[in-house]
Amino acid sequence: MPLTTLAIENAKPREKSYILTDGNGLHLVVNPNGSKLWRLRYRFAGKQNMLSLGAYPVIGLAAARSRRDDAHKLIADDVDPSQQKRIDQIARGVAAKTTFGAVVEEHLEILKEDRAAISTISKNRWLLQDLAAPLTKRPITAITPAEILHILQRVEKTGRRETARRLRGAIGAIFRRAITTLRATNDPTYPLRGALRPPLVQHRAAIIDERELGALMVSIDEYDGWPTVRASLQLIALTMTRPIEIRLMRRSEINWPKATWSIPAERMKMRRPHNVPLSKQALDVLRSIWDLSEGSGLVLPSVRAANKPLSEGAMIAALRRIGYTKDQVSPHGFRASASTLLNERGFNPDVIEAALAHQDEDEIRRAYNRASYWKERVQMLQAWADLLDEFRVLSATRSAA
Prior knowledge:
Elements: H1 5-10, E1 18-23, E2 26-30, E3 36-44, E4 47-56, H2 61-76, H3 81-97, H4 100-113, H5 118-131, H6 145-156, H7 161-180, H8 210-221, H9 227-239, H10 243-247, E5 254-255, E6 260-263, E7 274-277, H11 280-289, H12 312-321, H13 333-344, H14 349-355, H15 363-372, H16 374-400
Antiparallel strand pairs: 1-2, 2-3, 3-4, 5-6, 6-7
Helix pairs in contact: 4-5, 4-7, 5-7, 6-7, 8-16, 9-11, 14-16
């Protein structure tokens, strides 16, 4: 006769364990200590077996019957329920040890092995280990879209919409790695597409008027702060490179006889080496501060520590000190100034793009450009340096007028 909840509740402990039978092998063992345990007796491969289904009342009568039926379905599919239970327990144990943080460590190590740019590795570490810190110790299979959305919205509320968007992408990359290594079955960031507000487009401030750019260069030349800070702004204007590339410039990368600066792939945004022709003016700037970094591998060491690079904050602070606001100019804006003014003067757009180290979507064309535009780039960067000198003169004539 099938059991009822009332019969189970009324079953009192005795001196010895006894059994209350429900049917189809399911029964409840009532122990002297008062515990009530569900068991399933079944046959598999000609042998009698016993399967534990849990304790009452945590596992109620209906749940016990459901587990019994599931076990019989496995037997019908020629699967031993006890063996499957052990496999499931092992899988849960592995999943519990496979944390989000563990996969993040693997991801960062792969970026290093693939020679990703230092800035890329640093940005991923900041996103995944700092901003996504609440996920670090969580089993990766247990993380829900709601958890991730809470973290993303917390970042978004600070006004950093673009950071929140990048964070979602970085977390998604971790789950895709877990999926490809069979440690997860889905990416919980996928349902969050469109959940964040679009980033506010912020154009980097740049001066594209020739006289105004000349006045800026004069102000930089007259800057009376730390010499390497002044040199960093002069060099970023002359070389059309990014602030991080200027700040991390090393003495060993400068070839004086050939007048070149060789930036390794790991420091470039597009992860390919980039050679920069150095104009006569750029070489003069380097000579003016070369002795200041003697004994240090860096050309532009920090004001506070010779073994650390100059910070972009120091460059920004210098621009503010000489009277320019964030809406007028930024360290990155010098690239936009050069690109705009050189295009206006009829220089080859492909040569300008090559000088800016922008990625060409066409692999064949990219290889051709690297091989064919060196001479043109040498000539263009020297012409650009000469133009900056002309702009200085233009600004002086305006001031005199």
